[in-house]
Specification:
CATH topology: Sufe protein. Chain: A
Number of strands: 3
Oligomer: single chain
Strand order of the largest sheet: 1-2-3
Order of helices and strands: HEEEHHH
Bound molecules: zinc ion
Largest sheet: 3 strands, antiparallel
CATH class: Alpha Beta
Helix content: 25-40%
Structural class: alpha+beta
Strand content: 15-25%
Radius of gyration: 14 Å
Length: 148
């Protein structure tokens, strides 16, 4: 498990998995996506409230391992007030960070805690799961979206 993640970042991951932020149903959500990782059993539902192409509110529910919960928790803090194009570009960088431990461009803030995950291939899917859910949520067809 993540007990082997030998960085200071372990603290942040533990904190977010024990007390996940925005862990609730979002009744006013207009985008909802599921993420399921059969290898680990992680199962999350992500709720987005979008106004145009800006994320106004974001929350999640579900169950899973510490890494998937922490990733979903940090994701909800990260996506608020971002536009869909910002989220798309962030997804690419987070994907690089989680799979290789490296990421180009601007500092990525709290997301840097996932830089150690690539050393544990079984955990990569756990960390990336909420991001895939976020991408399908913003690509959702529940209301017309203008393509940028
Ligand atoms: Zn997991």
């Amino acid at each position: 498990m993540f007990d082997d993640l030998s960085d200071l970042y372990q603290q942040v991951i533990l904190d977010h998995s024990k007390s996940p932020r925005n862990f609730r149903v979002l009744p006013q959500a207009n985008r909802i996506a599921q993420g399921y990782n059969p290898l680990c059993g992680d199962n999350i539902t992500l709720y987005l409230e979008m106004a145009g192409d800006v994320v106004k509110n974001v929350a999640f529910q579900g169950s899973g391992c510490a890494i998937s919960k922490a990733s979903a928790s940090i994701l909800t803090e990260t996506l608020k007030d971002k536009t869909t194009s910002e989220i798309r570009s962030l997804f690419g960088r987070v994907h690089d960070l989680i799979t290789t431990g490296k990421c180009d461009g601007d500092p990525i803030g709290k997301l840097a805690v996932f830089a150690g995950v690539h050393k544990f291939p079984a955990r990569v899917k756990c960390a990336i799961l909420p991001w895939h859910a976020a991408m399908s949520a913003i690509d959702g067809k529940q209301e017309p979206v203008s393509t940028e």
